[in-house]
Amino acid sequence: MYTAVVAIIVFSALVFFHELGHFSIAKLVGIKVHEFAIGMGPKLLGFRKGETDYSVRALPIGGYVRMEGEDEKSNDARSFSNKSIKERIAVILAGPLMNIILGLILFTIIFYNVAGVPTTRIEQIIANTPAEEIGMEAGDRIVSINGRTIESWDQIVEQISTSNGESLNLEIERNNIIVQKTIDPEVDSETGQFRIGIVPSVQKSFSLAIKNSFSQTRMIVFGIFDFFRGLISSRQEVLEDVVGPVGIINLVGQASRAGMIYVMHLAALISINLAVMNLLPIPALDGSRILFLIIEALRGKPIDPDKEGFVHIVGFALLMLLMIMITYKDITSIFF
């Protein structure tokens, strides 16, 4: 029960931020919004303010902002279809952008309040590791690796993990003097990752927390692109990593048992994934709507709303079919 409650809260927060983006920009550019809804299915709660109905619905599996003229023809001057292409793109783009912002906020909170931000200065040298062998010391600050200026701990981790064990040329600041070192990363027997044997000092800094949240988000986005490259090449291990709602609920349950910080981290990860996925040019997703608007700008006249709506309906049906297949995989992997 606790897992279900936490999962509903996480899903609802992600959907709320996404739809709030669409809603806010729609209102800003003067589009008539009929309804702002969190969830699908029968209405549980709701009220009306001005021209807009606000509702919470029974099934916590999504949400929507119902705008005048979004998927149908409308002669209303305040309809979505009668706004400029730039304004319509801004409305659509605002949803994924809000999910990125949510991810950045959550990562910033995590980095600042929980663990602090790992810096480029070394706190500890692990015994019997390459760092000890070449004489690195606590208090050293890594300035550059292979000529690349180092500004964050994530960059150090990236350089080491992608080294494939090849030698790295380090510039280290020690007592205001630059020291040159060459180090050969080794494989950690426990994690299977390359390491040199250093532990970073941790600093609580709001500006560093924000900077690291952007760095973390960038790494996640690139990770998603790597996933799609693997998906195109049909690597089996990549396909096995795909999870649907049931799989996500299972992950939320595991995170909730570990602590709220893990729930926040998972929520940030899902939020950024949701943003990137929504920007893909797949029918029924925000990316395809933006693609249709770009085509409209290139051809100089709008696409028939009925035809575009039909494409989105077909795309939505295919997405639901894919979701059913992934859900079946999740259930069999978890319970059988």
UniProtKB/TrEMBL annotation:
Keywords: Hydrolase, Membrane, Metal-binding, Metalloprotease, Protease, Transmembrane, Transmembrane helix, Zinc. It comes from the Bacteria. It is an enzyme of class 3 (hydrolase). The chain crosses the membrane at residues 89-112, 261-282, 309-328. Its EC number is 3.4.24.-. Coiled coil: none annotated. Residues 122-152 form the PDZ domain. It is found in: Membrane. GO terms for biological process: proteolysis. CDD domains: cpPDZ_EcRseP-like (cd23081), S2P-M50_PDZ_RseP-like (cd06163). PROSITE patterns: PDZ. Its main location: membrane. InterPro entries: PDZ (IPR001478), PDZ_6 (IPR041489), PDZ_sf (IPR036034), Pept_M50_Zn (IPR004387), Peptidase_M50 (IPR008915). SUPFAM superfamilies: PDZ domain-like. It holds the Pfam family Peptidase_M50. It is a multi-pass membrane protein. One of its GO terms (cellular component) is membrane. Belongs to the peptidase M50B family. This is Zinc metalloprotease. It comes from Serpentinicella alkaliphila.
